[in-house]
């Protein structure tokens, strides 16, 4: 049936800058904020904005992401007309078909899917940002201006602007130039990677882009510049809420810590804009006689009998008596045994820090300090030491250093 | 194959002794264990045994229960074929009003449903106990023993005698006597009032009871026939909590602070399911204290929580103290307030600097939505 708007969520990226955390899962499936995975934010935004048809484009390590999304029921996207669709690349007659070559090509390969719903508008989202945004409001602005494309932008500092795609726009919001990571930015309006297109226009440009053998089939590199060069109307849509790209270990850690700061601007407790997640069946968490918990998030199924401060605990984490966890993220089923010390670290799903081991350390001002990461399912042996900024991908034997 | 077992849960009873806690709800929808309702336990036990069809017999004040179970989706019971069926009174409604006087009366109230049951065997009982029961094992024992009726029992006497039934067995293990609501506990085991029986025999019994104006299963149906029917106990060795008074409720809640009880009741191999509410994780503030407590998701704790059980979305402000208490979903304890031996129902607000104290034998129950 015809839909006014369909969302296309780009979830195929590897997220190589998350290193060990994405060796087994796609970036959008990385756990975030105690209860969620990154993809819960754009998916919940869709539902809260009244968008009930979402295509999720997958390519890299889709297994966990596919089973996580499932029927879409946790987001109320298990509807008979629309709902959530997993869209992997596929083969066609005569050995035709390729992997998704770029973000634009991923949408190009799914023109058939979009035409099935015959939408007026398509919003392109990415699966690696933490934010709450009403896409309906953005759509209203898009309709009002009559633009071919509206791009959500965020004001950043001029220094930060060098790391983003920057939209140079007139005062009325009309974009006249797009610069990717400019050395000398002319504006501080950073693209949030959220594009609202009039579908008929986008389709036209996708087909033209596909015909160009020199194109890298990317929205930022090709589609947006092509629209600009052709004189199409592109508008900015200013967003001033919380938004964070969690594509690196540091930004992922930062964004988790932001959930602990009441004034950071991201509030998971706000009932008017809930973030939905697929939640495993777990009893409430338990704090033991010796527990000391402060300034932390703790989730169902956790057993805490040690000290935790400034940390985020996902479901079913165990922190034994005498263990000390500071400024860390413990992903589902992680275990920190008696007397172990974990600070400024990310312990991925199911990993165990054995008794007396040490992972990470507080900042000491040195150049090579950073967040320590222990990959999923690993075992850090008794009294082993994992240095700050270490990226542990293999078990560490008792007493050894990594 | 466990697909041949059908589940019935009776949820028509509001225990008057629970006072404020069951004024607006049926005992089956009483919140317990932080995030659960009592019905979750037996409903999950049924589902974990592979039961696909469950009938939920309700009579009055079942609004909160229906709101909780919904379509049965959270128990995988929202099915095209079978699944959860809510059974309010139908054929019965015009004849007399008031709570069903027993499960046989309740069954004749849903007689046409009972006739349509597609399984050969039925397990039935009241969904107001907290237990992790291996229902499949009960069913297997029923089949192997050749019993006409299997009664789930416990050796741990948990109910108050006046509202409990005790069983005595002969040398072969067969139940030879029952003592129903006696002044003092007597008999080898206490009945948990869950029964496995063939559909055929149950239908005969319902017909007989309807024709003779009999209402109860234990007293009117089983007791007179103990010599002709082979009635066998199934002894549940694990934890079980019954809820017949506010003191029971409080004690059963404190039991959950014991790791062995939790390991039994929340056995991960047979998880207890409940309504998914998409709560975020619980936040603890910089000066929070939390020890020896069971805390659900979505709480916001800046004060002290000790030896307590908290439901979803409870707020304990800075400087507030919650000790030996049970706070249900959405209760707010404002700064400087102090609670001890309190059971606060859903959505209670305790204002600044209030001090409320009950006693372990007489916990203070505060009605749903009260502002103190």
Give a concise summary.
Chain A has helices spanning 40-48, 63-69, 103-108, 111-117, 135-145, 199-211, 219-229, 249-258, and strands spanning 5-10, 31-32, 36-37, 53-57, 83-87, 121-126, 129-131, 149-155, 165-169, 175-180, 189-198, 234-238, 243-245, 285-287, 292-294, 296-298, 303-304, 307-309, 312-313, 318-319, 324-326, 329-330, 335-336, 341-343, 345-347, 352-353, 358-359, 372-374, 379-380, 385-386, 391-392. Chain A has eight helices and 31 strands.
Write a structural description.
The complex is a heterodimer of chains A (402) and B (372). By secondary structure, chain A is an alpha/beta fold. Chain A is 18% helix and 27% strand. In chain A, helix 6 crosses helix 7 (219-229). Chain A starts with a strand and ends in a 10-residue tail after the last strand. The mean pLDDT of chain A is 93. Chain B is an alpha/beta fold and 372 residues long. Chain B folds into two domains: 5-265, Spore Coat Polysaccharide Biosynthesis Protein SpsA, Chain A, CATH 3.90.550.10; 283-366, UDP N-Acetylglucosamine Acyltransferase, domain 1 (3 Solenoid). In chain B, 21% of the residues lie in helices and 28% in strands. Chain B has nine helices and 28 strands. In chain B, helix 3 (103-109) crosses helix 6. The longest helix of chain B is centred in the middle third of the chain and has 14 residues, at 199-212.
Mean pLDDT of chain B: 90
Gap between N and C termini of chain A, in Å? 56 Å
Based on helices, strands and strand pairing, what is the structural class of chain A?
alpha/beta
Number of helices of chain B: 9
Number of strands of chain B: 28
Q: How far apart lie the N and C ends of chain B?
A: 54 Å
Strand runs of chain A, count: 31
Structural class of chain B: alpha/beta
Specify the helix fraction band of chain A: 10-25%
Strand fraction of chain B: 25-35%
Low-pLDDT stretches of chain B are none
Radius of gyration of chain B: 21 Å
Helix content of chain B: 10-25%
- Low-confidence segments of chain A, given as residue ranges, are none
Major sheet: arrangement of strands of chain A? 5-4-1-6-11-8-12
Beta-strand fraction estimate of chain A: 25-35%
């Amino acid at each position: 049936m015809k839909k006014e708007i369909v969302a296309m969520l780009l979830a195929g990226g590897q997220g190589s800058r998350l290193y060990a955390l994405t060796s087994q899962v796609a970036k959008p499936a990385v756990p975030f904020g105690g209860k969620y995975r990154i993809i819960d934010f754009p998916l919940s935004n869709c539902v809260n904005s009244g968008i009930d048809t979402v295509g999720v484009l997958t390519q890299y390590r889709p297994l966990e992401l596919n089973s996580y999304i499932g029927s879409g029921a946790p987001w109320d996207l298990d509807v008979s007309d629309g709902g959530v669709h997993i869209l992997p690349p596929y083969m066609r007659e005569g050995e035709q078909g390729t992997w998704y070559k770029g973000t634009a090509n991923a949408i190009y390969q799914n023109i058939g899917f979009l035409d099935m719903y015959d939408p007026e508008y398509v919003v392109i989202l990415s699966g690696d940002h933490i934010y709450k945004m009403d896409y309906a409001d953005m759509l209203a602005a898009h309709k009002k201006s009559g633009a071919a494309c509206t791009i959500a932008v965020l004001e950043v500092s001029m220094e930060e602007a060098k790391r983003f795609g920057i939209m140079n726009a007139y005062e009325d919001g009309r974009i006249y130039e797009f610069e990717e990571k400019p050395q000398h930015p002319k504006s501080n309006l950073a693209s949030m990677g959220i594009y609202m297109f009039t579908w008929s226009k986008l389709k036209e440009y996708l087909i033209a882009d596909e015909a160009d053998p020199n194109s890298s089939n990317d929205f930022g590199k090709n589609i947006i510049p092509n629209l600009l060069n052709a004189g199409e109307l592109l508008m900015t849509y200013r967003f001033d809420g919380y938004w964070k790209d969690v594509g690196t270990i540091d930004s992922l850690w930062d964004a988790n810590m932001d959930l602990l700061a009441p004034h950071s601007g991201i509030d998971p407790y706000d009932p008017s804009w809930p973030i939905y997640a697929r939640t495993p069946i777990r009893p409430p968490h338990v704090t033991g006689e010796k527990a000391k918990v402060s300034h932390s998030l703790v989730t169902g199924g956790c057993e805490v009998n040690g000290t935790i401060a400034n940390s985020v605990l996902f479901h079913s984490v165990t922190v034994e008596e005498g263990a000390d966890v500071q400024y860390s993220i413990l992903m589902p089923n992680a275990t920190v045994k008696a007397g172990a010390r974990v600070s400024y670290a990310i312990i991925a799903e199911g990993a165990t820090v054995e008794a007396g081991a040490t992972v990470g350390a507080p900042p000491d001002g040195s150049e090579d300090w950073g967040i320590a990461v222990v990959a999923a399912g690993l075992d850090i042996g008794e009294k082993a030491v994992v240095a700050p900024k270490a990226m542990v991908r293999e078990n560490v034997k008792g007493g050894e250093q990594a | 194959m466990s697909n041949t077992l059908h589940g019935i849960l009776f949820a028509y009873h509001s225990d008057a002794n629970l006072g404020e806690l069951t004024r607006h709800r049926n005992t089956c929808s009483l919140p317990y264990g932080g995030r659960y309702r009592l019905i979750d336990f037996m409903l999950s036990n049924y589902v974990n045994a592979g039961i696909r069809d469950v009938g939920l017999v309700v009579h009055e004040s079942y609004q909160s229960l229906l709101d909780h179970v919904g379509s049965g989706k959270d128990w995988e019971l929202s099915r095209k074929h079978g699944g959860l069926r809510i059974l309010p009174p139908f054929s019965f409604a015009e004849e007399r009003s008031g709570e069903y006087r027993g499960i046989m009366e309740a069954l004749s109230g849903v007689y046409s449903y009972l006739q349509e049951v597609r399984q050969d065997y039925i397990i039935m009982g009241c969904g107001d106990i907290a237990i992790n029961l291996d229902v499949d094992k009960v069913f297997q024992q029923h089949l192997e023993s050749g019993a006409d009726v299997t009664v789930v029992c416990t050796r741990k006497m948990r109910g108050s005698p006046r509202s409990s039934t005790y069983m005595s067995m002969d040398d072969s293990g067969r139940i030879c006597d029952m003592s129903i609501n006696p002044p003092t506990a007597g008999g080898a085991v206490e009945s948990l009032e869950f029964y496995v029986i063939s559909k055929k025999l149950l239908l005969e019994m319902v017909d007989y009871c309807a024709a003779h104006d009999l209402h109860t299963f234990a007293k009117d149906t089983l007791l007179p026939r103990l010599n002709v029917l082979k009635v066998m106990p199934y002894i549940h060795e694990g934890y079980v909590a019954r809820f017949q008074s506010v003191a029971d409720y409080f004690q059963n809640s404190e039991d959950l602070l014991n790791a062995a009880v939790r390991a039994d009741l929340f056995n991960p191999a047979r998880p207890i399911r409940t309504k998914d509410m998409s709560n975020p994780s619980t936040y603890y503030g910089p000066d929070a204290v939390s020890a020896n407590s069971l805390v659900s998701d979505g709480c916001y704790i800046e004060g002290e929580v000790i030896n307590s059980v908290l439901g979803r979305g409870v707020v304990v402000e800075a400087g507030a103290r919650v000790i030996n208490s049970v706070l249900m979903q959405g209760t707010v304890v404002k700064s400087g307030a102090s609670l001890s031996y309190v059971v606060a129902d859903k959505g209670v607000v305790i204002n600044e600097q209030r001090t409320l104290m009950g006693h372990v034998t007489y916990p203070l129950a505060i009605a749903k939505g009260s502002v103190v």
